Amino acid sequence: MSTIAVLGAGKIGEALLSGLLHGGRSVDDLLFTERHPERAAELTARYGIAAVEIPEAAKRAEVLVVAVKPQDIEPLLEELAPLVGADSLIVSLCAGLPTSLYEQRLPPGVPVVRVMPNTPMLVGEAMSAISAGSHASARHLAVVTEMLACVGQVIEVPESQQDAVTALSGSGPAYFFYLVEAMIDAGILLGLPRTVAEKLIVQSAVGAAKMLAESDEHPVLLREAVTSPAGTTINAIRELEKHGVRAALLAAIEAARDRSVELGRAHE
């Protein structure tokens, strides 16, 4: 990798910059753009990375990471179009936006790699799925993989699966936070102080995630190991099934997938 510019320094953009620094990148090899001057000054003070305008970013950086909100993509691509060529690499972190959108708006031959990261990037534990556009080579994918490995794990998928990835892992942390929030409230309902309930559930979540990551066993087997005959857990599971929690989760993830598709179609 050479110089990297992050276009849009929101939470994900900042997390990537921070991860690259922790991964050994020099501040001299990093740039970012940010339309809010106060935010730009804050990040420069925090990390020592220069805030620049888009024309300078396009001129100085070989890798341009697009980290703006999907609804802000059109004016950004309009500004980028006369500034980039086949020697630039565009890395899109925008949910729902296909590589074909970039290829239609930018000059012919510009390589684009689509990425769906998630917010655990903020703590170096992201799950990022990457897909090559029609002009992106194995070398471009290797560059993006090396970059994202600084903030978590990386997997390559066909772009046709990216909307499903967005629904599953892109939005996935929110589902876990939602469940943890409900379980903390349950602890309070049962008479526990909020601080105690929170500590119990958060550490249980950390431990369960570690078991899933490090065990070769299927999640069903791990759950069954906690579920004794006629015990407390099976009674809880019965209530979850009675209330259709599994079906609701399936429907929720399908709805997220459908919204990702809509975001892409909005720019056709």
From TrEMBL:
Enzyme type, top EC level: oxidoreductase
Pathway assignment: Amino-acid biosynthesis; L-proline biosynthesis; L-proline from L-glutamate 5-semialdehyde: step 1/1
Superkingdom of the source species: Bacteria
Pfam families for this protein: F420_oxidored, P5CR_dimer
Keywords carried by this UniProt record: Amino-acid biosynthesis, Cytoplasm, NADP, Oxidoreductase, Proline biosynthesis
Localization per record: Cytoplasm
TM region positions: none
Major localisation: cytoplasm
Molecular function via GO: pyrroline-5-carboxylate reductase activity
Reaction catalyzed: L-proline + NADP(+) = (S)-1-pyrroline-5-carboxylate + NADPH + 2 H(+); L-proline + NAD(+) = (S)-1-pyrroline-5-carboxylate + NADH + 2 H(+)
InterPro entries the UniProt entry points to: 6-PGluconate_DH-like_C_sf (IPR008927), NAD(P)-bd_dom_sf (IPR036291), P5C_Rdtase_cat_N (IPR028939), P5CR-like_CS (IPR053790), P5CR_dimer (IPR029036), Pyrroline-COOH_reductase (IPR000304)
Keyword Amino-acid biosynthesis carried by entry: yes
SUPFAM superfamilies linked to this entry: 6-phosphogluconate dehydrogenase C-terminal domain-like (SSF48179), NAD(P)-binding Rossmann-fold domains (SSF51735)
PROSITE patterns: P5CR (PS00521)
Function: Catalyzes the reduction of 1-pyrroline-5-carboxylate (PCA) to L-proline.
Family as reported in the entry's similarity comment: Belongs to the pyrroline-5-carboxylate reductase family.
Protein name: Pyrroline-5-carboxylate reductase
Organism: Amycolatopsis pigmentata
Lineage of the organism: Bacteria, Bacillati, Actinomycetota, Actinomycetes, Pseudonocardiales
